[in-house]
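Milestone M4 deliverable, item 7.
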Amino acid sequence: MRGTFFHSIRPLLSSRRSVIIVLLAPPLLYTSATFVRLLHQYPTTKIHPSHPVYISRDNQRFKQTHVHWFSAKVPLKTLLSSSQRSSVLSESTDKDTSAISKVQVEKQFPVPDKNPVENWTFAFFSTPTLSLEASSLGWLVGNGFNTGDQARDGVCVGQGLAHGLFRVIAFQTEEDIIEESKNMIKRGEAKEADIVNGGVLGRVIVEYSMPDGLVRSWEVVAARYGWPWRHLSGGRHCLEVVSDGLIGRNERDLEDEMVAVRFGCAVDLERVNRVNGQEDAKLMPWAFAWLHEMYARWLVDGAVNKLMRGIDGVRE
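Output delivered:
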């Protein structure tokens, strides 16, 4: 049998070109199939201009591009710890429960102050790809080959994730977001129809910055040699958990309730070339932007898979 197999593939190995094709075909097919799957499974959707992810460190200096959502549906129970699920289920299965017995249920199953979006954030930053990236960064900066903070214990404003590569600039619960929307309507900054915060159970926004020398080198080449592109200066990522908002929180059937987990990207580009002082409309190379979005899809896919498997620290 073995001799028959090698005899059948001998023509394929008769030349160097054939050997290269045999070696490269499987990874190319796998990569192509993965790209097609990710494009189909996580299509891009535009983020509404009123969303806070558009707010950069300096909107006069930076313009925002490639502001997109990548979303997936997961059961709500994948974002809750076992104690949270037990408490909510105990309340939802007994509609005649008195206020006193509800207090007793909460004492029996204490609900930690951990929002579902914090678990979504941890799932995202603990994916194998980001873990490897963070560990490599830790080794390069002298912190050892470890992932650094991945939001395992929760999220707070000012927190540095992945050895400070990402910094948390906003963390909002459902109550915070509702209050913010009401204030925007009162101040006349938005109409009720424009508010896109309905059903958001939690939101985390992190920012990152690229090395200034890297950004400036692209500007130098653009100013002196007509380079038609510009490198991103940084940007923000937003992680949200969104419910349909049609059922009361204590009456949800956690076995059936589905929520959307979203990952949003906003890229900052310099409006004015700092070398020649000219404002232009140069953007990132198309292929660079496309790969950036494919990488985002890959990370979301990894995080969703971890949630569905029940990762340590999220559903313990």
